Amino acid sequence: MAAPPLKHIVEAALLAAGGPLSLDHLQTLFDQNNVPDKAGLRAALAELDKEYEGRGIELKALASGYQIQVRTELAPWLSRLWEEKPQRYSRALLETLAIIAYRQPVTRGEIEEIRGVSVNTNIMRTLQERGWVRSVGHRDVPGRPAMYGTTRQFLDYFNLASLDELPSLLELRDLDDIHPELDLKFPEEADASAATPDAEPRDE
Amino acid sequence: MAAPPLKHIVEAALLAAGGPLSLDHLQTLFDQNNVPDKAGLRAALAELDKEYEGRGIELKALASGYQIQVRTELAPWLSRLWEEKPQRYSRALLETLAIIAYRQPVTRGEIEEIRGVSVNTNIMRTLQERGWVRSVGHRDVPGRPAMYGTTRQFLDYFNLASLDELPSLLELRDLDDIHPELDLKFPEEADASAATPDAEPRDE
Amino acid sequence: MTDTADSDGLLEEQPGAVPSARVRGEPVQELPRDLYIPPDALEVFLEAFEGPLDLLLYLIRKQNLNILDVPIAAITRQYMEYVDLMKELRLELAAEYLVMAAVLAEIKSRTLLPRPPAQEDEEEDPRAELVRRLQEYERYKVAGEELDALPRQGRDFFPAAAEAPDVEPQRREPEVDMRELLAALADVMTRAEMFTHHHVQKEALSVRERMTETLARLDAEHFTGFAELLNAEEGRAGVVVSFLALLELIKAAMVEVVQSEPLAPIHIRARG
Question: Which of C161, C164, C183 sits opposite A175 (nearest CB)?
Fold first, then answer.
């Protein structure tokens, strides 16, 4: 097999290494009898540099060697690449959201009464930041506590045209009955399907 | 600033990720109002694929998405990039992995039954730590043993897009088959197969 | 390995042509006959078998035999010689090898026994099960070799990566399923009801009483799932009492608790 062009070897090495490679280091990749001289390597690098013009990547000469980098202009598209794994909402938050959805307009005090525990301020803030819950007025009692309700975004997110489409409390009874069964699920199973996308069918 | 061409964004994202990205994942990189459809992404990927022809890199579709890879032909130049020799795996590990890959979901007891020996705990741990194997649930029998299956990372690691691409298994034959089979053969064939009785329908 | 049906296997059977070999540094003067193994490779081979099926497969292949036509007497003899050799060399011999020895002996005795002519058609070849297992094992043995030969990331192909500009990773919002929301609501409703009833009807739920009831629900033959013993309809107080009762039973060693691995479901049965 004929040896591939020098610039292809250099490009492949830079991309496989993922970090900067010096000319000396690049030379060590070749058979002793076929080591390109530095001028040859520089020429290959110059060719690559030219090829990358107008593309999303560029060749940079750094202190420790040459490196292929993604151009800064493309940063906006990369910012979502390393999104942190989404956290899961706490049980307390989901309960609070459910009470607001079914009992709106409802004050924090009323939520606390139903849940039997106090409602964390963070929960109310998270729900409002997410755009699912908003203050819809004040109850006309001493202290004038804020009343909360759900938003249009809440309905959109859950694919509901209106609040009427929320499952009725009667259906909830059934759910309550089957709930002990749901709890019998094995933690790994539940985790596995939630955490690893492997379980899903591929889109290709 | 005008948005860069789609193929440059895709190329930059694949190179920045350094691992496979699915079409779904690529779509999440864009602003909600500017998400390209999958056909558009596929077209961009096809363009890239064409550009890479005759170069040192290529575009591959793996189980968990698309990946830009250095071509296998260039591996000899790259093996010197890393001091460490690639790991060798024991026969026990490879056989266990093969059984999980072809028979999934499968319990440890079933693996042991096929191999005729007990499966070392280290092997199961190694396979899971490498992210190639995971528990996919429990068999509904006493003791509820864990069932194992392979992951997308497993396929990625072996450069496969799906389990279908695994080499096909040897065929099983019935004891009763031997004699009728021989009778049907022409004398030369019968001779040939007598000389190499293990030339089973494998294409190597 | 599978295709090493080399013809020289039979040549090494010649008595006297067996030079001494070293096993773990110790010279081995006499090798059993009929061992179709290159003597200098003895050490390697003895440790290379992946179990009795692997050894049997090796013996069969080494003699150019077809799995479907295993001469059980010959193979059994060789297998036993191997097992004896391993014992003699004090190589750690897994119990599976001895189990297989028993299986082979059983098949051999069945092939020797005359069968009543009437049943001849119905009775299966006694080797059938062994042949099935051998074939089954061989498929995966070969599959393992083929897996090893597949291109591998970091050895045969390399993912291409470029340095990315500094970007702030974005946070993704958690996903919520409608069912999760409903489950949360159901929970809170149950709890709310429990709180309201709690003061009205104070049920006397003694732990002792519950211990008796729990024991009555368990038997010594079958395991009962832990969760089945806790009845959610009784509300929190009821669940707590059941749980305390269970703890008392465990402490008193009246029940046996089994969990196959951490986080796996817990199963309970009465001690016989």
Answer: C183
